[in-house]
Task: inverse folding
């Protein structure tokens, strides 16, 4: 039984944990970190995968680093993750029918706030 455990530990130490290990190429690591900052953890929902301690975020970081190491473009990786996990995974979702309300909400809230302020100032006169 200890031989099996020793082999498992050796195999685990032979393959780097790319979820928590930087890439050897500083340029590739910078690309990976920039992309990880743009992607939302699907478990934590309030943190990027770069900041999250969730196992899923570590898996996503490893996936990003593996694909960057293979030479893939960060925008292709981002598009693939959006396709796989949905628009929610991105902090900057693309404009589509499903996200139109998300993009329009800040403008609507500003308009409502301006209308309330205008009404309040008119009552004071």
Result:
């Amino acid at each position: 039984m200890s031989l099996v455990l020793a082999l498992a530990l050796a195999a685990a130490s032979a393959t780097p944990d790319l979820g928590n290990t930087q890439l050897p190429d500083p340029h590739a690591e910078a690309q990976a970190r920039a992309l990880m900052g743009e992607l939302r953890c699907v478990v934590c929902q309030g943190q990027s995968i770069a900041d999250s301690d969730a196992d899923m975020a570590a898996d996503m970081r490893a996936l990003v680093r593996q694909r960057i190491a293979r030479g893939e473009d960060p925008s292709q990786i981002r598009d693939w993750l959006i396709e796989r996990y949905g628009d929610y995974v991105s902090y900057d979702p693309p404009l589509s029918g499903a996200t139109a309300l998300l993009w329009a909400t800040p403008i609507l809230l500003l308009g409502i706030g301006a209308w309330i302020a205008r009404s309040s100032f008119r009552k004071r006169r």
